[in-house]
Specification:
By secondary structure, this protein is an alpha/beta fold. The protein is 45% helix and 17% strand. A five-stranded parallel β-sheet has the order 4-3-5-6-7, with helices on both faces. Strands 9-8-10-11-12 form a five-stranded parallel β-sheet, with helices on both faces. Strands 1-2 form a two-stranded antiparallel sheet. The mean pLDDT is 95. The structure holds 6-O-phosphono-alpha-D-glucopyranose (G6P). The site of 6-O-phosphono-alpha-D-glucopyranose has 16 residues, from α5. It comes from Gossypium stocksii.
Length: 376
């Protein structure tokens, strides 16, 4: 065990810190840099005979549980943008409970680190019965999802041992960004956008290396939050998923109540919870939603909210209404908007990790949870 953890004390810690490498492995052999005559493109071998059918499908439905669902949610906007195909999201158990409509013209994408989650497998069985084209995105070669889908992509993040998923999450997002690029590959109008994303993917491991330097800062923040009862995380757009996933990490391992919320829903209930005691993390990195997040921060500030803001490097003054004394700022490197969730989740993974260690709980095997839930 000790050998596998290398210099780290816990698998979760190791898996958080190895993300520059796991992301590099995820992308290996799949991105073409282009040249003077060739365009920059993505090659996804496991999909090559099916990409046209996916492009022509009437709808893409993402199906998963837990962190895998959140990864799909993070990728949804870029899939919609580059494919032009409507995308809907399904939590696997809920799709099966409702027996929700799935059609022959649908592409159903099953996202699962283990490839063995019972609820996701039941949803796969259901989608196959209904005639959908079924695509698997998994970290486990030979798993039930890899075997029973029509085609798929392995995320190649390497074995993940910590029950709380970290490196698989970021690799799943990158794989789905590559899926978006592959589906949209035939559209001239979005070529510049696709090339910018490919450049961003090449540079992503470096940016992740940079954001991991926040480790100590997140440990300091964890010390301040150690005794809190509750934590809220607000995000929107590409980073709605970051809010859900950040809150999920904190609750899974540190056993602190935390909720991720869509910032656009703040006035429809959550605002009632805001006072000078409850810590609130707001994700406000630069993208099309930035000015809306600035106004969310102002409204929380006006109600004396205890703010912790994740923003792009150099934006501290732009996000803190009353200067740095009014809120704590976590500055992260800016990347292409659709890849920003990969960078933004990392300080929250580190926060969850340090909170857990400081509170004295089991990091790698949190109470009552299993790495792979193979029963209903
Ligand atoms: C369990 C694990 C989570 C994981 C979820 C889905 O709840 O504790 O970390 O996100 O299952 O697992 P999967 O293997 O399908 O991604």
């Amino acid at each position: 065990e000790q050998i596998n953890k290398g210099k780290y004390e816990h698998y979760m810690q190791k898996e958080i810190h190895e993300q520059p490498e796991s992301l590099t492995t995820t992308m290996r052999g799949r991105l073409r840099r282009g040249g003077s005559t060739k365009a920059k493109t993505v090659l996804l071998g496991g999909l090559k005979d099916h990409i046209k059918s996916i492009r022509r499908s009437r709808r893409i439905v993402f199906i998963g549980c837990g962190t895998s669902y959140n990864a799909a949610l993070a990728a949804r906007p870029i899939i919609e943008e580059l494919s032009g195909v409507p995308v809907t999201m399904e939590i696997a158990s809920d799709l099966v409970d409702r027996q929700g409509p799935i059609y022959r013209e649908d592409t159903a994408v099953f996202v699962s680190q283990s490839g063995e989650t019972a609820d996701t497998l039941l949803a796969l069985e259901y989608a196959l019965e209904n005639g959908a084209l079924c695509v698997g995105i998994t970290n486990t070669v030979g798993s039930a999802i890899a075997r029973n889908t029509h085609c798929g992509i392995h995320i190649n993040a390497g074995c993940e041992i910590g029950v709380a998923s970290t490196k698989a999450y970021t690799s799943q997002i990158v794989v789905m960004a590559m899926l978006a690029l592959a589906i949209g590959d035939d559209a001239i109008s979005s070529q510049a956008r696709r090339e910018a994303i490919i450049d961003g993917l090449f540079d992503l491991p470096n940016k992740v290396r940079e954001v991991l330097k926040l480790d100590q800062e997140m440990e300091e923040l964890a010390k301040l939050l150690i005794a809190e009862q509750s934590l809220l995380v607000f995000g929107r757009g590409y980073n709605f998923a970051t809010a859900l996933e950040g809150a999920l990490k904190v609750k899974e391992v540190s056993l602190m109540h935390s909720e991720g919320m869509l910032a656009g829903e703040m006035k429809h209930g959550p605002l009632a919870l805001v006072d000078e005691n409850l810590p609130i993390i707001v994700i406000a990195t630069r993208d099309a939603c930035f000015s809306k997040q600035q106004s969310v921060i102002q409204q929380l500030h006006a109600r004396k909210g205890r703010l912790i803001v994740v923003c792009s490097k150099g934006d501290a003054a732009a996000v803190c209404p009353g200067g740095s004394s009014s809120c704590r700022v976590i500055e992260v490197p800016q990347v292409e908007d659709c890849l920003q969730p990969v960078v933004n989740i990392i300080p929250l993974q580190l926060l969850a990790y340090h909170l857990t260690v400081l509170r004295g709980y089991n990091v790698d095997q949190p109470r009552n949870l299993a790495k792979s839930v193979t029963t209903q």
